[in-house]
Amino acid sequence: MQLPFPLAEEPEAIAHETGRKLFAGQSEFVKGVVAMSGLPPADRMEVCFAGRSNVGKSSLINALTGTKGLARASNTPGRTQEINYFTQGPELYLVDLPGYGYANAPLAVVEKWQRLLKQYLSGRQTLRRAFVLIDTRHGVKKVDEEIMKLLDTSAVTFQVVMTKADKVKDKDRAKILDQVREALSKHPAAYPEIVLTSSEKGDGIATLRSIIAHLD
Ligand SMILES: Nc1nc2c(ncn2[C@@H]2O[C@H](COP(=O)(O)OP(=O)(O)O)[C@@H](O)[C@H]2O)c(=O)[nH]1
Ligand SMILES: [Mg+2]
């Protein structure tokens, strides 16, 4: 019997090549968006990345695009509350959502970006999938639950990407994965497959590229 929410398998040669090709194109920072009116034209497909601050989101975007320092723009103070757009070749936008879980952010700031996030997730026609990043050391936290609920109500399919897999010993990983699976089982918008990655070692990067390249 197959466990629910299995780990994504490495792509076969052809699928691997499709992913490689898509990400061989150039990546550039386009803009940081603070309101729906600032979104670039919806002229290509896009995927977005969400996760708690420090989960490894910038590192993952850099690893996917093979562009060191690309997503650093989104780390500069003042950029953290923006929806940051990157091109990946001419056919794809990679969208870096604001990191959540800053315990000390003022309520007004939190509410403002939650409103924008809600509008974005439910209103962006070309958004194909959201990737929710979860730290392999920590599993799903309460703030992750909140974004998953938001994705459920926005009817945007989301897929969990485990980050920093290199920091967790094989024997400890199974327990965390089970906690994640348990959490995902409560979310109708969860895609039934988990991607295990390490931006540091490159694990799972080709898999994620291939997954993105095969979204329709
Ligand atoms: N060991 C390890 N560290 C990572 C990995 N990904 C990110 N980090 C580290 O985690 C910290 C936060 O990463 P960053 O990408 O800036 O997180 P963000 O706040 O989610 O954008 C940095 O010190 C990274 O070097 C990984 O795959 N393995
Ligand atoms: Mg970042």
Automatic annotation (TrEMBL):
Gene3D superfamilies: P-loop containing nucleotide triphosphate hydrolases. The keyword Metal-binding applies. Keywords: Cell cycle, Cell division, GTP-binding, Magnesium, Metal-binding, Nucleotide-binding, Septation. Residues 43-216 form the EngB-type G domain. The gene is engB. This is Probable GTP-binding protein EngB. It holds the Pfam family MMR_HSR1. The keyword Cell cycle applies.
